[in-house]
Amino acid sequence: MSGSNSKAHRLQSSSDLETSPEATRAGFVAMAMEKNRYATPYVDEARALHHQAAKAQNPENLLQMDNIKAALLTAAGVSDKAQKHLTPADKNQAIEGLIKDFLTPAGNNFVEELVFRFLLFRGDALGGTMRNLAGMLAQRKFTRTMLAILRNAGTSFMWKDTRSRQWFRQTDNDVDLDLSLCGLHWKNKNKEDRTLMYNVTPPLVNNNVDICLLNCSPEQAKLRELLPDAYLALGELKGGIDPAGADEHWKTARTALSRIREAFAEAQAKPHLFFIGAAIEKRMAEEIWLDLEAGRLSNAANLTKDEQLTDIAEWLYKL
């Protein structure tokens, strides 16, 4: 088979890429557990709000309780982002509307009504986070695999913190790095710099790329200054586990990869392209296999199959 040296070693046919029913069920359970973890702080906030609001003799007393004003605004339907743009008078008006239209009519159950409305709007905010959850979980799993490859090889590395955007050297206590890492740097066996970045926008493509491996140091990883040949590999990572959405995820990824291929071809460069997906159905697997055979893809892996993820991470490590 053409290009077999580039592909993950364990791939022998398109069926190897297909997601099993067991993996799908495990993925749904993992998602549910993660959603519960994200929801826990909101439940704690609601529980505390119930205890605090219960001290009020009537709904009107809530207006005098500055210690729960932010929660009252949430229950009134004012988002955290919107609160930053409101004047004190605007905020009082929103809370007064909540009290008049919903809490007072609830009578003695006004505290429960307040908590229910608080959770309703908090849940809406959580829903926005959940839409990105599959991608976050996929990135974390891939990161853990890359870190394992580096550590098993005894290769020292640096990592980029998502919040501070600063680079740090590895330590003996790099626990939970997958939660806060958006970049990795190491040197290959030839002492050449390798920098892996998540969610970047190469100027040639002018669209977000999920994973990008660069032939440069972190200090040189300024995308607008890099030559096309500095891009060693670019890949799409799709973490959605629902089979119903698998085909749509692949169409999106395939379009993105084609756009990348064409943009770099115009610049007379040919970086490796790869795809990693959690939900891969039969027809989708066959299309991926055809792209591998034709050389349109250099590599592919099913995110739910640890051996394939290990192989593609090791492939990137050795490029």
Helix content: 40-55%
- What can be said about the biggest beta sheet? 8 strands, mixed
End-to-end separation: 21 Å
Structural class of the secondary elements? alpha+beta
What Rg is obtained from the alpha carbons, in whole angstroms? Answer: 25 Å
Low-confidence segments: 1-6
Strand numbers in spatial order across the main sheet: 2-1-3-4-5-6-7-8
Treating each run of at least 4 consecutive H or I residues as one helix, how many helices?
9
The helix/strand order is: HHHHHHEEEEEEHEHEH
Morphology: elongated
The strand count comes to: 8
Sheet-strand content, in percent, reads 5-15%
What's the mean pLDDT score? 91
Q: What do you see in this structure?
A:
- The protein is α+β, with helices and mostly antiparallel strands.
- The protein is about 45% helix and about 15% strand.
- The protein is built from nine helices and eight strands.
- The chain has helices at about 20-55, 70-75, 80-85, 90-105, 110-130, 135-150, 245-265, 280-295, 305-319; strands spanning about 160, 165-170, 180-185, 195-200, 210-215, 230-240, 270-275, 300.
- Strands 2-1-3-4-5-6-7-8 form an eight-stranded mixed beta sheet, with helices on both faces.
- The longest helix has about 35 residues, at about 20-55.
- Mean pLDDT is about 90; it is low at about 1-5.
Keywords for this entry:
319 residues, alpha+beta, disordered N terminus
Question: What's the topology here?
Answer:
Blueprint: H1 21-53, H2 69-75, H3 80-83, H4 88-103, H5 110-130, H6 133-152, E1 158-161, E2 167-169, E3 181-187, E4 193-200, E5 209-214, E6 231-238, H7 246-266, E7 272-277, H8 282-294, E8 299-302, H9 306-318
Parallel strand pairs: 6-7, 7-8
Antiparallel strand pairs: 1-2, 1-3, 3-4, 4-5, 5-6
